[in-house]
Amino acid sequence: MKKDFIRKWFYLGVLFLLPVIFLLFLYPSTHNYIPLDIVKTNVNDVDDFNFFDDKKTLFKDNITVLSFLGNEPMNNITSVLNLKELVYDKFRGFKKFQILTISTSGTEVVLEEVKKEIQKADELKYWYFATGTPEQIQKLYSSLINDIELDTTLATNRVFIIDKLYNQRGRIDDRTETEVEKGKKLYGLYSYNSIKISEIKNKMSDDMRILFTEYRQKRKGKFDSNNRRIQNLETIEN
Predict the structure, then answer these.
(1) 37-237: CATH homologous superfamily?
(2) Which single residue of 75, 127, 133, 179 could bond 184 by disulfide (Cβ 3.0 to 4.6 Å)?
(3) Taking every pair of C-alpha atoms in the chain, what is the biggest distance, in angstroms?
(4) On the CB side of 29, how many CA atoms lie within 13 Å of its CA?
């Protein structure tokens, strides 16, 4: 009887302790994520652009998704609709989140139509629209790191993440584990193709969540900036 009693409490103790030990192993890892890389610093702000309805914004102190529609905004409506459904609707509740869409001066009427097209469902409280000269747009775009030029209409399907301190965010190393194992040359992800739904849903959404987690931890005093992987930043910019 005594052995049965000891065996019973031994098993109960094991059943109780195993989950506790497992959670203790997991706990440190919850704060050991890899922050979203800074791929470019000192992105130009947009204080010299003309904003719709006197509703002006800046990159400073905001987490911004930046897009360029050029001088034919309606030709890029698919890009805008994807951003509305896959990015804006998902992150509009996050603090300091915003989308900024840039077009060229003289396209205000068409850009207003684009705005109305995506405003059918709800108010675009955190979405801003602005226009600028070709020179202003090229200057802003040149302050970003990118692997594709603006097209002849000054538009691109690529969208960019800019943090509160004028840093462009992305991935210094976008290789898969298999590619790393095979020794494939390093390549990054500096912007996101808004036409590719899979890229927006899988990569950009993940990266946005990581960035919001970083700022949330900063507010709580739990963020370790030494974890950020920026050792390859100079190589990228050069």
Answers:
(1) Glutaredoxin (3.40.30.10)
(2) 179
(3) 91
(4) 5
Decide if 194 contacts 157 (C-beta within 8 A).
yes
* Strand pairing report for 127-132 and 168-170: unpaired
Ordered by start, the domain boundaries in the chain are: 1-30, 37-237
* pLDDT given at position 54: 81
pLDDT tens string 155-167: 999 999 999 999 9
β-bridge pairing 37-40 and 168-170:
antiparallel
| Residue 203: how many other CB atoms lie within 10 Å | 17
The tens digit of pLDDT for each residue in 83-99 reads 999 999 999 989 899 99
Q: What are phi and psi of 102, to 5 degrees?
A: -110, 135
The residue among 161, 160, 197, 162 whose CA lies nearest residue 78 is: 197
How many whole angstroms separate alpha carbon 129 and alpha carbon 109?
A: 12
Structure tokens of 70?
């050029």
- Strand pairing of 168-170 and 192-193? unpaired
The token pair that represents 27 in the structure block: 């706990």
